[in-house]
Amino acid sequence: MCENHQYTAKDFKSDQYVRWCPGCGDHAVVNTLQKAMAELGIAPKDTAVISGIGCSSRLPYYMGTYGFHTIHGRGAAIATGVKVANPHLSVWQITGDGDCMAIGGNHFIHSVRRNVDINVILLNNKIYGLTKGQYSPTSARGFVSKSSPYGTVEDPFIPAELTLGARGNFFARSLDVEMNLTKDAMVAAARHRGAAVVEVLQNCVIFNDGIHTCITDKAVRADRTITLVQGEKMIFGANRDKGIVLDGLTLKTVTIGQDGYTLDDVLVHDATTRDNTLHFMLAMMGCTPESTLPVALGIIRNAEAPTYDHEVEHQLEEVAAKKKDHNLTELILQGETWEVK
């Protein structure tokens, strides 16, 4: 892959008409992804975008790269095959909360556990949009939908919890309305060696409109979200006067300058530590009904570890070097042979 060429977002756009509902958060995501790819400078011919089934999974059609619209929940498995077969490709998996967390859940956790070098963009609108409004694995307990008219009686998956539970080494979160933040997360995911998951909290204007309004509305966003930045204090709020501190074994929101708390007490973000204990706590902030903490955005975890595709490639090279036969022809001809005339 060459990363020296200057590309623009237009280089990664296809000629296909974008078929999503007007106002859908998917429009922002595809435009942001095209900008991120332009910034990375990897040629379209060296890029592959893989998806499963769902509204979000139409995205490969709109990319001027290689693309594969596969089958429900199998995007991770096919993306793994693409990356292992051609490790030099930049491979992206586009998936939704249903495609990824339900039928595709097993493939997802194992691609993360294996640390396959693919970039997973997980669009989470907490609903099945393509099949017209059933609750999804990320819908909250009590959520009323066409398939749960009296409210769900299930607790949801939280993508960050599942990713880190599968020993994931990269997790970031953004909002569909925060395009610059989403682009930065995508770029960082692509530059990370290994499985990288970027969750985008996205709106479905038809079947789940306003599901993320409690944190995306401009009037409350500054107080109910915190953007984590590597090496910087965990400060947030409309007045930039709130911070995250460690209170015993739990995280706590404080007002700087009150109750004896100073700037020195506020935690500094380090996404690169191998121990994921604090990353897990940060990723879970604001994600449960009882949490009063802000939802963490930005790059929450970005740690290094061996990648599956590199290890397989290295293993094949080692084995091949020790073998007498290096291809199928040599294997067939290594024993006694006869020439038939």
TrEMBL record:
Keywords: Oxidoreductase. One of its GO terms (molecular function) is oxidoreductase activity, acting on the aldehyde or oxo group of donors, iron-sulfur protein as acceptor. Residues 53-200 form the Thiamine pyrophosphate enzyme TPP-binding domain. Pfam families: TPP_enzyme_C (PF02775). One of its GO terms (biological process) is cellular respiration. The keyword Oxidoreductase applies. Signal peptide: none annotated. PANTHER family: 2-OXOGLUTARATE OXIDOREDUCTASE SUBUNIT KORB (PTHR48084:SF4), 2-OXOGLUTARATE OXIDOREDUCTASE SUBUNIT KORB-RELATED (PTHR48084). This is 2-oxoacid:ferredoxin oxidoreductase subunit beta. It comes from Candidatus Merdimorpha stercoravium.
